[in-house]
Amino acid sequence: MIRGAKRAPAAIRHGLNFRLTYKQSEALSGILMAAPWILGFLFFVAGPMIASLYLAMTRWDLFTPPRFLGLDNFHALLTDDNTFWLSFRVTTLYAVFSVPIQIAVGLALAQMLNQKIRLLGMFRSVYYLPSVLSGVSIAIMFRWIFGTQYGLLNGALKLLGIDPISWLGDPSIVLFSFILMSVWGSGANMLIYLGALQSVPTELYEAAEVDGAGSFRKFFKITVPMITPVIFFTLVNGIILSLQEFQTPFILTNGGPANASLFIVLYLYRNAFQWFKMGYASAIAWIIFFYVLVLSLLVLRSSKAWVYYEGSLKGRGE
Amino acid sequence: MTAWSLARKANRKRTDAIQKFVIYLILIAGAVIVLFPFLWTFSTSLKTPDQVYQIPPQMIPDPADPLNYARVLVDRPFARWMLNSLFVVVVSTVGTLLSCSLAAFAFSRLRWPLRDKLFLVLLATMMLPTQVTLIPTFILFKELGWINTYFPITLPAWFARNAFYVFLLRQFFMTIPLDLDDAARMDGASHLQVYWRIILPMSKPALGVAALMFAQFKWREFLAPLIYLNRTDSLTAAVGLRTFMDETHGTDWELMMAANIMFMLPVVIVFFFTQRYMIQGVVITGVKG
Amino acid sequence: MHKLSRRDFLKYSSLSAFGAMVATSPWSTLAQDAVTLRLTAWGNPTEVQAREATLALYDEMQDAIDIEFIHTPGSEYMTKLQTQLAGGDYPDVMFLGNGAIEPFVARGQLLALDDYLARDNFDTSDISQQNLKLYNVDGVQYGFPVDAPNQQLFYNKTLFDAAGIDTPAADWEDESWNWDAFLEKAIALTDHEAGIWGWQVKTGFRAWWIWVTANGGTFFNDEGTECVLNSPAAVEALQFLADLIHVHEVAPPLDVASEMGSGELFQSGVTAMETWWPAIGRMRTNIADKFEWNVAPHPAGAAGKSTSGGGTGHTVSAFTQQPDESWEFLKFLISTPCVSLWTDIMGIVPPLTSVAESDVFLKPGEPPADILVFTKGNDYLRPDPRHPQFTQAQQIAQSQLERLWVGGVTAQEVCDDAVAEINRLL
Q1: Which of A21, A233, A271, C12 suits B286 as a labelling partner, its CA being 20 to 30 A distant?
Q2: Is C66 helix (H, G, I), strand (E, B) or coil?
Q3: Distance from C-alpha of A223 to C-alpha of A67, rounded to nearest angstrom
Q4: Which of C161, C159, C167 minimizes the C-alpha distance to C191?
Q5: Reduced to 3 states, what is the DSSP secondary structure of residue C380?
Q6: C259: chain A residues, CB-CB within 8 Å
Q7: A185 — pLDDT class (breaks 50, 70, 90)
Q8: How far is the C-alpha of C133 from the C-alpha of C116, rounded, in Å?
Q9: Distance from CA of B107 to the nearest CA of A (A)
């Protein structure tokens, strides 16, 4: 058998014997294990995405047949739509501040809640609580928190002798309020980091303690580097989510006052479902897509410099 | 020498104590800030309509009206909606955990053609706002005859539709040393066995995090169930909750908030009882780097 | 009063529970060959009660048609409906805001009812003509109104009495109730110490549209080719409103108004006067016995008195497979028994004169005392402008005007900016 196989061409040999080299069997396993996702992608995701890309190049009012326009929508958006650029700026500013803050707060919470303290379970639950609420409930809650006259936040400031601030009514403050609100969602990041902290080998800390390292040094020299893969995840994911923020501004301010909280997806939504401009809306979506893609690729590229993979395949002949 | 090390130890103990105290202070202050709006929600859920519109607002409603809860459950089929949500969450969470962890394993620990390019594609599927794929997807599911069934909101989960969790698990898997796989392979284990016997057990915290986050996402999911479910009886709680809100005729805040409390209670309870197992369970098994 | 409403609630919920039992029992489908119509609508719990009660009534009245009610949350109703329609999954009868009528007709989504009206010789004279017209495009009727919700001025009578001033005139023809008189009262009512405001400037289109039209202003020119919101009449009206906030300080700044969703200040007793659409039933429950309240027309401007409004209606999809049955159902929805039941539960202004004159609407002894202001105001209704680009143009105007309400700019400036932006769109 083996002798015969040696004489036969390689392809037939494998086809007949199903005896694969290690590399081939690894490749086959990889494809098979990724198959559910590949199938799901081809079946549920790819079609609608291609359809929306086509629609981005048309004028479509949802009901009458789309009319092909080529790149006109993109051209109009990029050169002739001030509102689009305004929403682009609002959304970018929001992302630039909210993503790092969420990561920092999440990390701090995880670190504090990853030690032996009393009522640990209760504290963890309390800090995770905001993530449990539906988007609309959060928006409603913040209407109370940010209210000028009877809001909780201004009530607290009053105790400190600070004059009431118009959190949602002042165009120059409203975006700041949204960033403040995003801190609220740090519980999800906290949970991810807590999970990641469990796989940091305790030996590393013990070794560091022998060397006399304090908690801060341990945190920055061991904890943070060891969970960089997960921090990387929350960074990419944070960018994706924050640039697609929709629910809260939709309910809370509807983009106001004076478009100061007009997030880009809210503008997209108006075009798509209020103004019968689905083609134009699709073009906005694809601009967001490329914007997020470019940012993610930049992060991905930079990750080689700062993300440490214990289980990396790199340097193993790749 | 001993005296010096003792002094150092005492010093360490003191800074530890101070540190603990500061941590408690921060945690408690933060908890108060986080909890206050929830107390407010609870307070509103016990108000009568005219108390809701009272200025200055009452923190403790007098008289309290616990009947709001009964009205949410009797007047609207809120209990039924919660059961529907439970069904959707359980079915799709199992599917997501299986399909996403398989894909994450393939993307993080195996070498195969096009792997890195496909991973970029996977990331890219999260980057297009769903509003513009809504109608094409709707048409797809309509052709399949899936409108007004739970298929559109459960079945794709078995095909790793939520790429987020593939990405999350991949990142977690990448923190586990590869030597473990090699050792197991040396003993003759297949890739599937490595996945099932080594990586999954070692990733319990990650799987727990993913399960909890996905279950919670599914519990709150709004757009897909809104579009695909028509019969009032078959709605999920997240959609049902929104039916209490109405911009034209005004929202019954007291009912909305009572529903809200009931909506989040199951998730909070599940979290409270699983977080310990999920997060600390693994320290015992440990990771031998 | 509170007790009574709870008993009503129990009555209707048991009624609807019975209806649901009958509808879901296997016999009901075996017994007859009923056609099922799909009705899509939004609504809060009270409206769902009204919906279920009227459907139960319809079920009692006939056996040929079953109704499947698709209930969608209001804020996302259009997202779902438009997805369904674009995807070819057509409901039969659709609950639609009157603003959606023209764009839907322009895109061939609504069934013209004229043939049916002629065939059945259907008498529409009992329907408020102003509101009926909202569902008519180029002389073709596409639906019937559910309500006649004209916006009026609500006032807190207790605050008026406390300040010792006369309440606004309920008579639409009384021209002495003008902007000067209004300002005078607003100033007298405002008490910053006590946190009481004479007025609240609402940011919604229909709230300021009243003032613009009362002063003789419009939104588009007659040909619809240009936005003319920067005309002197419109600018003067908007400046008058902005001055109420910034100069006279009789209205709270914008952010206070957005605190709990605008409109909730009046129910809390913080504003003495406010523009409201007639959610009379809700108002009775939410205000309860905190204070006395009543309604009046808005004050007369240079062009007299005015009111805005719109409301919702029932329409039939152009793609329904059961147009005849849908028409039958539509006739029921505008029938006196159905409208009476709806009015009774919802506490809205009915679109039928017969019901508007009955005690179901008037509810003697309950506020507001001058409830007739609503029905008499139908003749003064200035509906939203009709234009293919109106929704987007209105959004632009809205965002620009928010700058005016926030302060630091003049009405002329924001109107010029809004007009420039809107004209680029046209």
Answers
A1: A233
A2: strand
A3: 55
A4: C159
A5: helix
A6: 143, 147-151
A7: confident
A8: 17
A9: 7
